[in-house]
Amino acid sequence: MLLKLEQASLAFGHVPLLDQADFQLDVGERVALIGRNGSGKSSMLAALAGQGALDDGKVWRQPGARIAYVPQEPMLDAAQTVFQSVVSGLGDISRLLAEYHHVSHELSKSGADVPQLHSELLPRLETLQHALEAEGAWTWQAQVDRVISRFGLDPEALTGTLSGGQKKRLALARALAFKPDALLLDEPTNHLDIQAIEWLESLLLELNVSLLFITHDRRFLEHLATRIVELDRGKLSSYPGSFAEYQRRKEAQLQEEAVLNRKFDKLLKEEEIWIRKGVEARRTRAVFRVQRLEKLRAERMERRDRLGQVKLRLDVGDKSGELVAELQHVSKAFADKIIVRDFSTRLLRGDKIGLIGANGAGKTTLLRLILGELKADSGTVRRGTRQEIAYFDQFRAQLDPEASLAEVISPGSDYVEIGGAKKHVIGYLEDFLFAPERARSPVKSLSGGERNRLLLARLFARPANVLVLDEPTNDLDMETLELLEQLLQEYSGALFLVSHDRAFLDNVVTQTLVAEGDGLWQEYAGGYEDWLTAKSRAPAANQPAAPEKTAPPTKTAKTVKPKSEKLTWKEQRELETLPDQIAALEAEQKALTALLSDPTIYQRAPEKAHPAACRLPAIDDELMALLERWETLESKTTP
After folding, report:
1. Is residue 330 located within the same domain as residue 474?
2. Which of 7, 60, 103, 368 is the most buried (most CB within 10 A)?
3. Residue 215 in contact with residue 188, Cβ under 8 Å?
4. Domain of 575: which CATH number?
5. pLDDT surpasses 50 at 280
6. Which letter does DSSP use for residue 81 in this model?
7. Domain housing 620
Protein backbone atom coordinates (compact mmCIF):
# COMPACT_ATOMS: atom_id res chain seq x y z
CA MET A 1 0.00 0.00 0.00
CA LEU A 2 1.38 3.42 -1.01
CA LEU A 3 -1.39 5.89 -0.16
CA LYS A 4 -4.47 5.83 2.03
CA LEU A 5 -7.37 8.12 2.92
CA GLU A 6 -9.23 7.36 6.15
CA GLN A 7 -12.61 8.90 6.99
CA ALA A 8 -11.70 11.96 4.92
CA SER A 9 -14.05 14.94 5.03
CA LEU A 10 -13.81 18.14 3.01
CA ALA A 11 -16.51 20.69 2.28
CA PHE A 12 -16.82 23.69 0.00
CA GLY A 13 -19.36 25.98 1.60
CA HIS A 14 -22.27 23.78 2.65
CA VAL A 15 -21.56 21.08 0.02
CA PRO A 16 -19.48 18.08 1.20
CA LEU A 17 -16.90 17.11 -1.44
CA LEU A 18 -15.59 14.24 0.69
CA ASP A 19 -17.95 12.76 3.25
CA GLN A 20 -16.01 10.36 5.51
CA ALA A 21 -14.45 8.83 2.40
CA ASP A 22 -11.92 5.98 2.36
CA PHE A 23 -9.41 5.20 -0.39
CA GLN A 24 -6.20 3.24 -0.87
CA LEU A 25 -3.66 2.96 -3.71
CA ASP A 26 -1.66 -0.28 -3.83
CA VAL A 27 1.66 -0.99 -5.54
CA GLY A 28 1.26 -1.61 -9.28
CA GLU A 29 -2.28 -0.22 -9.51
CA ARG A 30 -3.38 2.29 -12.15
CA VAL A 31 -6.52 3.92 -10.75
CA ALA A 32 -8.70 6.40 -12.65
CA LEU A 33 -10.59 8.85 -10.43
CA ILE A 34 -13.78 10.02 -12.15
CA GLY A 35 -16.79 12.13 -11.22
CA ARG A 36 -18.82 15.20 -12.13
CA ASN A 37 -17.20 18.61 -12.59
CA GLY A 38 -16.89 20.24 -9.17
CA SER A 39 -17.29 16.94 -7.29
CA GLY A 40 -13.91 17.34 -5.54
CA LYS A 41 -11.56 15.10 -7.57
CA SER A 42 -8.75 17.66 -7.82
CA SER A 43 -9.09 18.55 -4.13
CA MET A 44 -8.76 14.87 -3.21
CA LEU A 45 -5.68 14.45 -5.40
CA ALA A 46 -4.06 17.55 -3.88
CA ALA A 47 -4.76 16.26 -0.36
CA LEU A 48 -3.15 12.89 -1.14
CA ALA A 49 -0.12 14.71 -2.54
CA GLY A 50 0.20 16.86 0.56
CA GLN A 51 -0.71 19.99 -1.41
CA GLY A 52 -4.12 20.46 0.18
CA ALA A 53 -5.72 20.04 3.60
CA LEU A 54 -8.73 18.01 4.75
CA ASP A 55 -11.36 19.28 7.18
CA ASP A 56 -11.20 15.94 8.96
CA GLY A 57 -9.74 12.46 8.53
CA LYS A 58 -6.24 11.19 7.78
CA VAL A 59 -3.88 10.90 4.83
CA TRP A 60 -1.29 8.10 5.12
CA ARG A 61 1.74 7.80 2.85
CA GLN A 62 4.12 4.88 2.93
CA PRO A 63 7.28 6.03 4.76
CA GLY A 64 10.11 6.63 2.29
CA ALA A 65 7.80 6.36 -0.76
CA ARG A 66 8.39 8.95 -3.47
CA ILE A 67 5.09 10.55 -4.48
CA ALA A 68 5.02 12.79 -7.59
CA TYR A 69 2.09 15.10 -8.31
CA VAL A 70 1.28 16.92 -11.57
CA PRO A 71 -1.67 19.32 -11.12
CA GLN A 72 -3.96 20.34 -13.96
CA GLU A 73 -2.18 23.70 -14.34
CA PRO A 74 1.39 23.16 -13.07
CA MET A 75 3.16 26.11 -11.45
CA LEU A 76 6.36 26.70 -13.44
CA ASP A 77 8.92 29.46 -13.00
CA ALA A 78 9.06 31.26 -16.36
CA ALA A 79 12.62 32.47 -15.67
CA GLN A 80 14.05 28.97 -15.14
CA THR A 81 15.53 26.81 -17.87
CA VAL A 82 14.01 23.40 -18.57
CA PHE A 83 16.93 21.72 -16.76
CA GLN A 84 16.54 23.94 -13.68
CA SER A 85 12.80 23.26 -13.58
CA VAL A 86 13.25 19.48 -13.83
CA VAL A 87 15.89 19.26 -11.07
CA SER A 88 13.83 21.57 -8.82
CA GLY A 89 11.83 18.52 -7.78
CA LEU A 90 14.89 16.68 -6.42
CA GLY A 91 15.06 18.38 -3.04
CA ASP A 92 18.40 19.39 -1.51
CA ILE A 93 20.59 18.31 -4.42
CA SER A 94 18.60 20.33 -6.96
CA ARG A 95 20.66 23.48 -6.44
CA LEU A 96 23.95 21.58 -6.85
CA LEU A 97 22.78 19.85 -10.03
CA ALA A 98 21.41 23.06 -11.55
CA GLU A 99 24.64 24.96 -10.85
CA TYR A 100 26.81 22.09 -12.07
CA HIS A 101 24.81 21.92 -15.31
CA HIS A 102 25.12 25.70 -15.77
CA VAL A 103 28.87 25.79 -15.16
CA SER A 104 29.61 22.82 -17.44
CA HIS A 105 27.39 24.36 -20.13
CA GLU A 106 29.27 27.67 -19.88
CA LEU A 107 32.58 25.84 -20.09
CA SER A 108 31.52 23.93 -23.17
CA LYS A 109 30.57 27.25 -24.80
CA SER A 110 33.67 29.20 -23.78
CA GLY A 111 36.46 26.59 -23.85
CA ALA A 112 39.91 28.01 -24.43
CA ASP A 113 38.56 31.07 -26.27
CA VAL A 114 38.03 32.91 -22.99
CA PRO A 115 40.98 31.89 -20.79
CA GLN A 116 40.00 34.07 -17.81
CA LEU A 117 36.42 32.74 -17.68
CA HIS A 118 37.78 29.24 -18.17
CA SER A 119 40.14 29.58 -15.21
CA GLU A 120 37.33 30.95 -13.00
CA LEU A 121 34.83 28.23 -13.86
CA LEU A 122 37.09 25.18 -13.58
CA PRO A 123 37.71 25.49 -9.80
CA ARG A 124 33.98 25.99 -9.24
CA LEU A 125 33.21 22.93 -11.35
CA GLU A 126 35.66 20.86 -9.31
CA THR A 127 34.06 22.02 -6.04
CA LEU A 128 30.61 21.13 -7.33
CA GLN A 129 31.88 17.77 -8.53
CA HIS A 130 33.12 16.87 -5.02
CA ALA A 131 29.85 18.08 -3.46
CA LEU A 132 27.78 15.95 -5.84
CA GLU A 133 29.97 12.91 -5.20
CA ALA A 134 29.46 13.39 -1.47
CA GLU A 135 25.68 13.48 -2.01
CA GLY A 136 25.75 10.45 -4.36
CA ALA A 137 23.97 12.59 -6.94
CA TRP A 138 25.56 11.39 -10.20
CA THR A 139 22.77 8.87 -10.80
CA TRP A 140 20.25 11.72 -10.52
CA GLN A 141 22.21 13.77 -13.08
CA ALA A 142 21.99 10.89 -15.56
CA GLN A 143 18.29 10.38 -14.80
CA VAL A 144 17.50 14.06 -15.38
CA ASP A 145 19.38 14.07 -18.71
CA ARG A 146 17.59 10.88 -19.76
CA VAL A 147 14.11 12.21 -18.90
CA ILE A 148 14.65 15.56 -20.63
CA SER A 149 15.88 13.77 -23.74
CA ARG A 150 12.97 11.35 -23.71
CA PHE A 151 10.39 14.14 -23.48
CA GLY A 152 12.03 15.90 -26.44
CA LEU A 153 12.81 19.09 -24.52
CA ASP A 154 15.69 21.53 -24.90
CA PRO A 155 17.41 21.71 -21.48
CA GLU A 156 18.52 25.32 -22.08
CA ALA A 157 15.10 26.63 -23.21
CA LEU A 158 13.40 29.09 -20.86
CA THR A 159 10.17 27.74 -19.39
CA GLY A 160 8.34 30.96 -20.24
CA THR A 161 8.93 30.40 -23.97
CA LEU A 162 7.33 26.93 -24.05
CA SER A 163 3.95 26.11 -25.62
CA GLY A 164 1.11 24.63 -23.58
CA GLY A 165 1.96 21.10 -24.75
CA GLN A 166 5.66 21.57 -23.96
CA LYS A 167 4.84 22.86 -20.48
CA LYS A 168 2.75 19.76 -19.83
CA ARG A 169 5.69 17.59 -20.98
CA LEU A 170 8.00 19.56 -18.70
CA ALA A 171 5.71 19.04 -15.70
CA LEU A 172 5.60 15.30 -16.41
CA ALA A 173 9.40 15.19 -16.87
CA ARG A 174 9.89 16.94 -13.53
CA ALA A 175 7.62 14.40 -11.84
CA LEU A 176 9.40 11.40 -13.38
CA ALA A 177 12.94 12.70 -12.84
CA PHE A 178 13.18 11.36 -9.29
CA LYS A 179 11.76 7.90 -10.12
CA PRO A 180 8.48 8.10 -8.17
CA ASP A 181 6.80 5.09 -6.58
CA ALA A 182 3.40 6.69 -7.20
CA LEU A 183 2.37 9.29 -9.77
CA LEU A 184 -0.70 11.52 -9.25
CA LEU A 185 -1.88 13.14 -12.50
CA ASP A 186 -4.69 15.69 -12.87
CA GLU A 187 -5.92 15.84 -16.50
CA PRO A 188 -2.53 14.88 -18.02
CA THR A 189 -3.85 14.92 -21.62
CA ASN A 190 -4.89 18.59 -21.61
CA HIS A 191 -2.85 20.63 -24.14
CA LEU A 192 -1.37 17.45 -25.69
CA ASP A 193 -2.09 16.45 -29.28
CA ILE A 194 -3.16 12.91 -30.21
CA GLN A 195 0.38 11.75 -31.00
CA ALA A 196 1.64 13.02 -27.63
CA ILE A 197 -1.29 11.40 -25.78
CA GLU A 198 -0.58 8.01 -27.35
CA TRP A 199 3.12 8.43 -26.55
CA LEU A 200 2.27 9.23 -22.91
CA GLU A 201 0.05 6.13 -22.70
CA SER A 202 2.91 3.94 -23.90
CA LEU A 203 5.39 5.59 -21.53
CA LEU A 204 3.20 5.13 -18.44
CA LEU A 205 2.56 1.47 -19.31
CA GLU A 206 6.28 0.90 -19.89
CA LEU A 207 7.35 2.57 -16.62
CA ASN A 208 4.99 0.36 -14.62
CA VAL A 209 4.63 3.08 -11.96
CA SER A 210 1.60 3.14 -9.62
CA LEU A 211 -0.89 5.69 -10.93
CA LEU A 212 -3.82 7.70 -9.65
CA PHE A 213 -5.11 9.95 -12.42
CA ILE A 214 -8.04 12.16 -13.36
CA THR A 215 -8.98 12.33 -17.04
CA HIS A 216 -11.91 13.10 -19.32
CA ASP A 217 -10.25 11.16 -22.17
CA ARG A 218 -12.14 7.85 -22.29
CA ARG A 219 -9.69 6.15 -24.64
CA PHE A 220 -6.74 7.11 -22.39
CA LEU A 221 -8.69 5.84 -19.37
CA GLU A 222 -9.61 2.56 -21.07
CA HIS A 223 -6.01 1.86 -22.08
CA LEU A 224 -4.46 2.59 -18.67
CA ALA A 225 -6.87 1.99 -15.79
CA THR A 226 -6.89 -1.26 -13.86
CA ARG A 227 -9.55 0.12 -11.50
CA ILE A 228 -12.13 2.91 -11.62
CA VAL A 229 -12.91 4.94 -8.48
CA GLU A 230 -15.90 7.28 -8.69
CA LEU A 231 -16.40 10.30 -6.44
CA ASP A 232 -20.15 10.89 -6.27
CA ARG A 233 -21.89 13.08 -3.68
CA GLY A 234 -18.96 12.87 -1.28
CA LYS A 235 -18.61 9.08 -1.39
CA LEU A 236 -15.97 6.97 -3.14
CA SER A 237 -17.00 3.78 -4.92
CA SER A 238 -14.49 1.31 -6.37
CA TYR A 239 -15.03 -0.65 -9.60
CA PRO A 240 -12.22 -3.09 -10.47
CA GLY A 241 -11.71 -3.71 -14.17
CA SER A 242 -12.18 -1.66 -17.33
CA PHE A 243 -14.18 1.49 -17.95
CA ALA A 244 -16.73 -0.49 -19.98
CA GLU A 245 -17.25 -2.83 -17.01
CA TYR A 246 -17.68 0.20 -14.73
CA GLN A 247 -20.38 1.63 -17.01
CA ARG A 248 -22.38 -1.60 -16.89
CA ARG A 249 -22.17 -1.91 -13.11
CA LYS A 250 -22.88 1.79 -12.54
CA GLU A 251 -26.04 1.71 -14.65
CA ALA A 252 -27.38 -1.24 -12.66
CA GLN A 253 -26.47 0.50 -9.38
CA LEU A 254 -28.29 3.72 -10.37
CA GLN A 255 -31.42 1.80 -11.30
CA GLU A 256 -31.38 0.01 -7.95
CA GLU A 257 -30.86 3.32 -6.13
CA ALA A 258 -33.79 4.89 -7.96
CA VAL A 259 -36.09 1.98 -6.97
CA LEU A 260 -35.08 2.23 -3.29
CA ASN A 261 -35.58 6.01 -3.28
CA ARG A 262 -39.07 5.65 -4.78
CA LYS A 263 -40.04 3.13 -2.09
CA PHE A 264 -38.63 5.38 0.62
CA ASP A 265 -40.45 8.45 -0.70
CA LYS A 266 -43.72 6.49 -0.93
CA LEU A 267 -43.44 5.36 2.70
CA LEU A 268 -42.60 8.89 3.85
CA LYS A 269 -45.60 10.30 1.96
CA GLU A 270 -47.94 7.72 3.55
CA GLU A 271 -46.67 8.53 7.05
CA GLU A 272 -47.02 12.28 6.44
CA ILE A 273 -50.67 11.73 5.40
CA TRP A 274 -51.27 9.59 8.49
CA ILE A 275 -49.85 12.17 10.93
CA ARG A 276 -52.16 14.82 9.48
CA LYS A 277 -55.36 12.82 10.08
CA GLY A 278 -58.11 14.01 12.39
CA VAL A 279 -58.24 14.29 16.19
CA GLU A 280 -59.22 10.63 16.70
CA ALA A 281 -56.26 9.38 14.65
CA ARG A 282 -53.87 11.65 16.57
CA ARG A 283 -55.20 10.30 19.89
CA THR A 284 -54.67 6.69 18.86
CA ARG A 285 -51.46 6.98 16.93
CA ALA A 286 -48.62 4.76 18.13
CA VAL A 287 -45.53 6.40 19.58
CA PHE A 288 -43.22 4.22 17.46
CA ARG A 289 -44.86 5.53 14.24
CA VAL A 290 -44.18 9.13 15.26
CA GLN A 291 -40.59 8.24 16.04
CA ARG A 292 -40.24 6.42 12.72
CA LEU A 293 -41.63 9.45 10.85
CA GLU A 294 -39.09 11.75 12.51
CA LYS A 295 -36.34 9.33 11.51
CA LEU A 296 -37.63 9.21 7.91
CA ARG A 297 -37.69 13.00 7.73
CA ALA A 298 -34.10 13.19 8.99
CA GLU A 299 -32.93 10.58 6.47
CA ARG A 300 -34.64 12.43 3.62
CA MET A 301 -32.97 15.69 4.65
CA GLU A 302 -29.55 13.98 4.65
CA ARG A 303 -30.04 12.24 1.32
CA ARG A 304 -28.12 13.94 -1.49
CA ASP A 305 -29.92 13.23 -4.76
CA ARG A 306 -27.79 12.67 -7.82
CA LEU A 307 -27.34 15.84 -9.87
CA GLY A 308 -29.49 16.07 -12.97
CA GLN A 309 -28.09 15.91 -16.47
CA VAL A 310 -27.22 18.92 -18.59
CA LYS A 311 -30.12 19.68 -20.98
CA LEU A 312 -28.52 20.41 -24.33
CA ARG A 313 -30.62 21.85 -27.15
CA LEU A 314 -29.36 23.41 -30.33
CA ASP A 315 -31.28 25.71 -32.69
CA VAL A 316 -30.09 25.17 -36.26
CA GLY A 317 -31.98 28.25 -37.47
CA ASP A 318 -32.48 28.69 -41.22
CA LYS A 319 -30.93 26.12 -43.50
CA SER A 320 -27.73 27.11 -45.18
CA GLY A 321 -27.14 26.40 -48.85
CA GLU A 322 -26.23 22.84 -49.80
CA LEU A 323 -22.60 23.87 -50.36
CA VAL A 324 -20.63 24.96 -47.29
CA ALA A 325 -17.26 25.49 -48.98
CA GLU A 326 -15.30 24.32 -52.01
CA LEU A 327 -11.49 24.59 -52.06
CA GLN A 328 -9.51 24.10 -55.28
CA HIS A 329 -5.70 23.85 -55.18
CA VAL A 330 -5.48 26.10 -52.12
CA SER A 331 -2.08 26.93 -50.63
CA LYS A 332 -1.13 29.09 -47.64
CA ALA A 333 2.25 29.87 -46.05
CA PHE A 334 3.55 32.15 -43.32
CA ALA A 335 7.09 33.31 -44.12
CA ASP A 336 8.93 30.15 -45.20
CA LYS A 337 6.57 27.72 -43.41
CA ILE A 338 3.97 26.11 -45.68
CA ILE A 339 0.74 25.41 -43.75
CA VAL A 340 -1.52 24.25 -46.60
CA ARG A 341 -0.16 22.94 -49.90
CA ASP A 342 -2.35 22.47 -53.02
CA PHE A 343 -5.43 21.28 -51.07
CA SER A 344 -8.82 20.63 -52.69
CA THR A 345 -12.09 19.50 -51.09
CA ARG A 346 -15.86 20.03 -51.26
CA LEU A 347 -17.83 20.29 -48.00
CA LEU A 348 -21.63 20.10 -47.82
CA ARG A 349 -24.43 20.86 -45.36
CA GLY A 350 -24.70 18.02 -42.83
CA ASP A 351 -21.00 17.07 -43.04
CA LYS A 352 -19.32 16.60 -39.67
CA ILE A 353 -15.63 17.21 -40.25
CA GLY A 354 -12.90 16.41 -37.75
CA LEU A 355 -9.49 18.07 -38.06
CA ILE A 356 -6.53 15.95 -36.90
CA GLY A 357 -2.95 17.11 -36.60
CA ALA A 358 -0.15 17.85 -34.16
CA ASN A 359 -0.11 21.13 -32.25
CA GLY A 360 1.05 23.81 -34.68
CA ALA A 361 0.16 21.79 -37.78
CA GLY A 362 -2.23 24.51 -38.99
CA LYS A 363 -5.71 23.24 -38.08
CA THR A 364 -6.94 26.74 -37.19
CA THR A 365 -5.41 28.19 -40.38
CA LEU A 366 -7.21 25.62 -42.54
CA LEU A 367 -10.49 26.36 -40.74
CA ARG A 368 -10.10 30.09 -41.35
CA LEU A 369 -9.45 29.42 -45.04
CA ILE A 370 -12.59 27.26 -45.30
CA LEU A 371 -14.74 29.87 -43.54
CA GLY A 372 -13.41 32.78 -45.60
CA GLU A 373 -11.65 34.51 -42.69
CA LEU A 374 -8.21 34.16 -44.29
CA LYS A 375 -7.16 34.75 -47.87
CA ALA A 376 -5.32 31.93 -49.64
CA ASP A 377 -1.95 32.60 -51.28
CA SER A 378 -3.07 30.62 -54.30
CA GLY A 379 -6.08 28.59 -55.41
CA THR A 380 -9.77 29.41 -54.95
CA VAL A 381 -12.24 29.14 -52.06
CA ARG A 382 -15.94 29.22 -52.89
CA ARG A 383 -18.25 29.76 -49.90
CA GLY A 384 -21.87 28.67 -49.53
CA THR A 385 -24.84 30.94 -48.79
CA ARG A 386 -27.05 31.79 -45.77
CA GLN A 387 -24.47 30.65 -43.21
CA GLU A 388 -24.84 31.45 -39.50
CA ILE A 389 -21.57 30.46 -37.81
CA ALA A 390 -21.05 29.81 -34.09
CA TYR A 391 -17.59 29.32 -32.54
CA PHE A 392 -16.45 27.41 -29.47
CA ASP A 393 -13.03 28.76 -28.49
CA GLN A 394 -10.70 26.40 -26.60
CA PHE A 395 -9.01 29.40 -24.92
CA ARG A 396 -12.38 30.78 -23.77
CA ALA A 397 -11.45 34.21 -25.08
CA GLN A 398 -15.14 34.95 -25.59
CA LEU A 399 -15.78 34.99 -21.84
CA ASP A 400 -15.33 38.26 -19.92
CA PRO A 401 -14.06 37.15 -16.46
CA GLU A 402 -15.82 40.07 -14.75
CA ALA A 403 -19.22 39.54 -16.42
CA SER A 404 -21.97 37.60 -14.64
CA LEU A 405 -23.18 34.27 -15.99
CA ALA A 406 -26.53 35.83 -16.96
CA GLU A 407 -24.80 38.67 -18.88
CA VAL A 408 -22.69 36.13 -20.81
CA ILE A 409 -25.77 34.19 -21.91
CA SER A 410 -28.11 37.08 -22.72
CA PRO A 411 -26.56 40.57 -22.58
CA GLY A 412 -29.19 43.25 -21.93
CA SER A 413 -32.10 40.81 -21.60
CA ASP A 414 -33.53 38.38 -19.07
CA TYR A 415 -34.63 35.91 -21.75
CA VAL A 416 -33.10 33.68 -24.41
CA GLU A 417 -34.96 32.34 -27.44
CA ILE A 418 -34.42 28.69 -28.33
CA GLY A 419 -36.25 27.25 -31.32
CA GLY A 420 -38.73 30.13 -31.35
CA ALA A 421 -39.63 29.79 -27.64
CA LYS A 422 -38.52 32.26 -24.94
CA LYS A 423 -36.98 31.06 -21.71
CA HIS A 424 -35.79 33.02 -18.68
CA VAL A 425 -32.01 33.15 -18.47
CA ILE A 426 -31.97 31.68 -14.93
CA GLY A 427 -34.00 28.67 -16.05
CA TYR A 428 -31.73 28.29 -19.07
CA LEU A 429 -28.65 28.30 -16.83
CA GLU A 430 -30.29 25.61 -14.66
CA ASP A 431 -30.40 23.41 -17.78
CA PHE A 432 -26.59 23.58 -17.69
CA LEU A 433 -26.48 22.75 -13.94
CA PHE A 434 -25.92 26.31 -12.69
CA ALA A 435 -27.96 27.00 -9.54
CA PRO A 436 -30.19 30.14 -9.63
CA GLU A 437 -28.09 31.88 -6.97
CA ARG A 438 -25.03 31.65 -9.23
CA ALA A 439 -26.63 33.52 -12.15
CA ARG A 440 -25.15 36.81 -10.89
CA SER A 441 -21.72 35.31 -10.04
CA PRO A 442 -18.74 36.44 -12.16
CA VAL A 443 -17.20 34.15 -14.76
CA LYS A 444 -13.86 34.22 -12.88
CA SER A 445 -15.45 32.24 -10.01
CA LEU A 446 -16.03 29.18 -12.25
CA SER A 447 -13.86 26.08 -12.55
CA GLY A 448 -12.47 24.97 -15.93
CA GLY A 449 -15.28 22.49 -16.51
CA GLU A 450 -17.93 25.04 -15.50
CA ARG A 451 -16.48 27.59 -17.93
CA ASN A 452 -16.73 25.05 -20.72
CA ARG A 453 -20.36 24.39 -19.78
CA LEU A 454 -21.07 28.14 -19.76
CA LEU A 455 -19.47 28.53 -23.19
CA LEU A 456 -21.64 25.70 -24.51
CA ALA A 457 -24.69 27.43 -23.00
CA ARG A 458 -23.73 30.68 -24.74
CA LEU A 459 -23.07 28.87 -28.01
CA PHE A 460 -26.40 27.04 -28.01
CA ALA A 461 -28.39 30.16 -27.06
CA ARG A 462 -28.10 31.42 -30.65
CA PRO A 463 -29.19 29.75 -33.88
CA ALA A 464 -26.34 28.40 -36.02
CA ASN A 465 -26.23 26.23 -39.12
CA VAL A 466 -22.39 26.02 -39.07
CA LEU A 467 -20.71 25.01 -35.81
CA VAL A 468 -16.97 25.37 -35.20
CA LEU A 469 -15.85 23.58 -32.01
CA ASP A 470 -12.19 23.98 -30.99
CA GLU A 471 -11.37 21.48 -28.20
CA PRO A 472 -14.87 21.49 -26.65
CA THR A 473 -14.20 18.39 -24.51
CA ASN A 474 -11.49 19.80 -22.18
CA ASP A 475 -12.55 19.58 -18.51
CA LEU A 476 -16.07 18.28 -19.26
CA ASP A 477 -17.24 15.30 -17.23
CA MET A 478 -18.06 12.10 -19.10
CA GLU A 479 -21.85 12.35 -18.79
CA THR A 480 -21.83 15.81 -20.38
CA LEU A 481 -19.46 14.54 -23.07
CA GLU A 482 -21.86 11.75 -23.99
CA LEU A 483 -24.82 14.16 -24.10
CA LEU A 484 -22.83 16.55 -26.32
CA GLU A 485 -21.95 13.65 -28.62
CA GLN A 486 -25.62 12.72 -28.97
CA LEU A 487 -26.60 16.33 -29.70
CA LEU A 488 -23.92 16.70 -32.40
CA GLN A 489 -24.86 13.36 -33.98
CA GLU A 490 -28.40 14.68 -34.45
CA TYR A 491 -27.32 18.17 -35.60
CA SER A 492 -28.34 18.82 -39.22
CA GLY A 493 -25.96 21.69 -39.95
CA ALA A 494 -22.27 21.57 -40.85
CA LEU A 495 -19.84 20.83 -38.02
CA PHE A 496 -16.10 21.48 -37.84
CA LEU A 497 -14.50 19.77 -34.85
CA VAL A 498 -10.92 20.20 -33.64
CA SER A 499 -10.32 17.66 -30.87
CA HIS A 500 -7.62 15.43 -29.41
CA ASP A 501 -10.28 13.19 -27.85
CA ARG A 502 -10.15 10.07 -30.03
CA ALA A 503 -13.41 8.56 -28.74
CA PHE A 504 -15.25 11.86 -29.27
CA LEU A 505 -14.01 12.07 -32.88
CA ASP A 506 -15.02 8.46 -33.57
CA ASN A 507 -18.51 9.00 -32.16
CA VAL A 508 -19.27 12.29 -33.94
CA VAL A 509 -17.51 12.99 -37.23
CA THR A 510 -18.33 11.61 -40.68
CA GLN A 511 -15.00 12.54 -42.26
CA THR A 512 -11.56 13.81 -41.22
CA LEU A 513 -9.05 16.27 -42.63
CA VAL A 514 -5.59 15.11 -41.53
CA ALA A 515 -2.32 17.07 -41.52
CA GLU A 516 0.28 14.71 -42.98
CA GLY A 517 3.29 17.05 -42.78
CA ASP A 518 4.92 19.66 -45.01
CA GLY A 519 1.58 21.41 -45.60
CA LEU A 520 -0.10 18.33 -47.05
CA TRP A 521 -3.70 17.62 -45.97
CA GLN A 522 -5.64 14.48 -46.81
CA GLU A 523 -9.37 13.76 -46.50
CA TYR A 524 -10.57 10.41 -45.08
CA ALA A 525 -14.03 8.94 -44.50
CA GLY A 526 -15.03 8.29 -40.88
CA GLY A 527 -13.33 9.17 -37.59
CA TYR A 528 -9.96 8.66 -35.93
CA GLU A 529 -9.93 4.84 -35.97
CA ASP A 530 -11.08 4.84 -39.60
CA TRP A 531 -8.14 7.09 -40.47
CA LEU A 532 -5.71 4.77 -38.65
CA THR A 533 -7.12 1.77 -40.55
CA ALA A 534 -6.86 3.58 -43.90
CA LYS A 535 -3.31 4.68 -43.12
CA SER A 536 -2.24 1.14 -42.22
CA ARG A 537 -3.69 -0.21 -45.46
CA ALA A 538 -2.09 2.46 -47.64
CA PRO A 539 1.38 0.82 -47.97
CA ALA A 540 -0.21 -2.52 -48.93
CA ALA A 541 -2.45 -0.80 -51.45
CA ASN A 542 0.56 0.81 -53.14
CA GLN A 543 2.31 -2.54 -53.68
CA PRO A 544 1.74 -4.24 -57.09
CA ALA A 545 -0.58 -7.19 -56.87
CA ALA A 546 1.16 -10.57 -57.06
CA PRO A 547 0.11 -12.77 -60.01
CA GLU A 548 -2.24 -15.56 -59.09
CA LYS A 549 -0.75 -19.05 -59.11
CA THR A 550 -2.66 -22.24 -59.74
CA ALA A 551 -1.65 -25.12 -57.50
CA PRO A 552 -0.90 -28.40 -59.31
CA PRO A 553 -3.62 -31.04 -58.92
CA THR A 554 -3.03 -33.57 -56.16
CA LYS A 555 -4.56 -36.95 -55.61
CA THR A 556 -4.94 -36.51 -51.87
CA ALA A 557 -5.41 -33.46 -49.70
CA LYS A 558 -2.33 -32.55 -47.72
CA THR A 559 -1.63 -30.00 -45.04
CA VAL A 560 0.72 -27.52 -46.66
CA LYS A 561 3.28 -25.91 -44.36
CA PRO A 562 3.20 -22.14 -44.92
CA LYS A 563 6.36 -20.81 -46.50
CA SER A 564 8.35 -18.04 -44.90
CA GLU A 565 7.81 -14.58 -46.38
CA LYS A 566 10.57 -13.57 -48.79
CA LEU A 567 12.62 -10.45 -48.18
CA THR A 568 12.67 -7.80 -50.88
CA TRP A 569 16.04 -6.84 -52.32
CA LYS A 570 16.00 -3.64 -50.27
CA GLU A 571 15.15 -5.52 -47.05
CA GLN A 572 17.92 -8.06 -47.73
CA ARG A 573 20.48 -5.27 -48.07
CA GLU A 574 19.13 -3.65 -44.90
CA LEU A 575 19.45 -6.94 -42.97
CA GLU A 576 23.06 -7.32 -44.11
CA THR A 577 24.02 -3.84 -42.85
CA LEU A 578 22.25 -4.04 -39.47
CA PRO A 579 25.02 -5.93 -37.58
CA ASP A 580 27.58 -3.27 -38.53
CA GLN A 581 25.24 -0.46 -37.48
CA ILE A 582 24.56 -2.12 -34.13
CA ALA A 583 28.26 -2.77 -33.54
CA ALA A 584 29.08 0.88 -34.32
CA LEU A 585 26.46 2.13 -31.84
CA GLU A 586 27.66 -0.25 -29.14
CA ALA A 587 31.24 0.92 -29.67
CA GLU A 588 30.13 4.56 -29.44
CA GLN A 589 28.14 3.77 -26.29
CA LYS A 590 31.17 2.10 -24.70
CA ALA A 591 33.45 5.02 -25.58
CA LEU A 592 31.04 7.66 -24.21
CA THR A 593 30.52 5.69 -20.99
CA ALA A 594 34.30 5.49 -20.51
CA LEU A 595 34.61 9.22 -21.26
CA LEU A 596 32.00 10.23 -18.67
CA SER A 597 33.45 7.85 -16.08
CA ASP A 598 36.68 9.84 -16.11
CA PRO A 599 36.36 12.53 -13.38
CA THR A 600 39.00 14.70 -15.10
CA ILE A 601 36.95 15.08 -18.29
CA TYR A 602 35.46 18.37 -17.09
CA GLN A 603 38.95 19.80 -16.65
CA ARG A 604 40.58 18.39 -19.81
CA ALA A 605 37.68 18.72 -22.28
CA PRO A 606 34.54 20.25 -20.70
CA GLU A 607 33.07 20.98 -24.14
CA LYS A 608 32.70 17.20 -24.68
CA ALA A 609 30.91 16.37 -21.41
CA HIS A 610 27.43 17.75 -22.00
CA PRO A 611 27.01 16.44 -25.58
CA ALA A 612 28.18 13.01 -24.40
CA ALA A 613 25.64 12.93 -21.54
CA CYS A 614 22.85 13.87 -23.97
CA ARG A 615 23.97 11.35 -26.60
CA LEU A 616 23.89 8.27 -24.34
CA PRO A 617 20.05 8.06 -23.93
CA ALA A 618 19.64 8.58 -27.68
CA ILE A 619 21.97 5.62 -28.36
CA ASP A 620 19.78 3.41 -26.14
CA ASP A 621 16.70 4.29 -28.22
CA GLU A 622 18.54 3.80 -31.54
CA LEU A 623 19.90 0.41 -30.46
CA MET A 624 16.46 -0.79 -29.39
CA ALA A 625 14.95 0.28 -32.74
CA LEU A 626 17.70 -1.50 -34.72
CA LEU A 627 17.41 -4.69 -32.67
CA GLU A 628 13.62 -4.76 -33.15
CA ARG A 629 14.07 -4.20 -36.90
CA TRP A 630 16.65 -7.01 -37.07
CA GLU A 631 14.25 -9.37 -35.30
CA THR A 632 11.44 -8.44 -37.71
CA LEU A 633 13.56 -9.07 -40.81
CA GLU A 634 15.04 -12.30 -39.40
CA SER A 635 11.55 -13.64 -38.69
CA LYS A 636 10.69 -13.29 -42.38
CA THR A 637 13.56 -15.59 -43.37
CA THR A 638 12.73 -18.28 -40.81
CA PRO A 639 10.41 -21.06 -42.12
Report:
1. yes
2. 103
3. yes
4. 1.10.287.380
5. no
6. B
7. 569-637
